[in-house]
Amino acid sequence: MQDVFQGGKESSVTNDYMPNDQLIIAGVKYQSRLLVGTGKYKNLEQTRLAIEASGAEIVTVAIRRTNIGQNPDEPNLLDVISPDKYTLLPNTAGCYTAKDAVRTCQLARELLGGHDLVKLEVLGDEKTLFPNIVDTLAAARTLIDDGFKVMVYTSDDPIVAKELEDMGCVSVMPLAAPIGSGLGIRNPYNIQLILEDAKVPIIVDAGVGTASDAAIAMELGCEGVLMNTAIAHAQKPVLMAQAMRKAVEAGREAFNAGRMPKKLYASASSPIDGRFF
User: Fold this and answer.
1) Quick check: is 119 catalytic?
2) What tens digit of pLDDT does each residue of 203-214 get?
3) What pTM, to 2 d.p., does this model score?
4) Is the pLDDT of residue 219 over 90?
5) What is residue 19's predicted lDDT score, i.e. its pLDDT?
6) What is the sign of the dihedral through the CA atoms of 146, 151, 153 and 154?
7) Considering only CA atoms, which of 85, 93, 90, 92 is closest in space to residue 51?
8) How confident is the model at residue 70, as a pLDDT?
9) Helix H segments across the chain?
10) Which of 29, 42, 119, 199 is catalytic?
11) HSE (CB half, 13 Å, CA atoms) of 116?
12) How far are the Cα atoms of 32, 60, 92, 191 from residue 182, in angstroms, in the given order?
C-alpha cells in the first residue's frame, strides 16, 4: 500500500506500480526494453547521441558492415559505444547462408574476447530482406551446439517461432513488417499467437516506423522492440530515439495495467435497472 493525498485528506490505495519489471535475456536483467542498432547514421557522433537518448542497454552491431577492431586504420565503433556501458549484440546482417552467418558469429566471438550473445539473421533475398527460414534453423542449431546464446530474427510464423525456442534460442524476434519498411505492426494476430506459448522473450524486430508502432508492440505483450532505421532515418534521430524510449516504456506499462474491454458503444456508469423514474 502507499499513502496519497486526495482533497487534503490522506488515503490509501493499492500500489500496482511494477518497478522490478525487467527484461531478462540469457539470465541477464535489463531495465530498458528498447534494443537499438548502430547503422545508417550520418556519423559516429550522431550514433552515440541517439543511442544515449534511447536509453537502450543492448546495442546491435553488424559485424560484416561495422568496424569494431578488424580494420585498425578506420574509425572504431567501440570508441563511442563502449562494451563497458552497453551489452553488444553482434548480428549477422548481410548474411544469406547458414555458413556465412555461423562464420560471422565466430568472428564476432574472436573480436570481442569470447562474447557469446549474438543476433542471428539469415536473409532470403535482397529486395524484401525476409528471413531464409531453412538456413536460419540450420544456423541456429549449429551456433547453439557451439555454445552461442542466440537471439534469432525470424518470420511471424508461430510454428517456426516455437521450433526456434524449443531448440534453445534465448529470444525469438519475429518481424512486424519488412526490415527498413517502417510499415508498423502489420499482423498483430500472428504476434499474439507467438506470445501465447512463448517461454523466452519475444522481441519485435523490423518494421517499426514511429513511436506508436513501438507502443503497439509492447501493448501486445512483447518483451521488447529492436529497431535501427526508424531512429537513424528520422529527420531528427536523437529526438526520435527519445520518443521511442518513452513509447516502449508506456506500452509496457499499459500492457501490465490491463486495458479496458473494447465495446461497441459506451455504457452508463451507473445502472438504471430498478429505477422508477
Assistant:
1) yes
2) 999 999 999 999
3) 0.89
4) yes
5) 65
6) positive
7) 85
8) 77
9) 44-54, 98-111, 133-145, 158-167, 188-197, 211-220, 229-232, 237-257
10) 119
11) 13
12) 22, 18, 21, 17
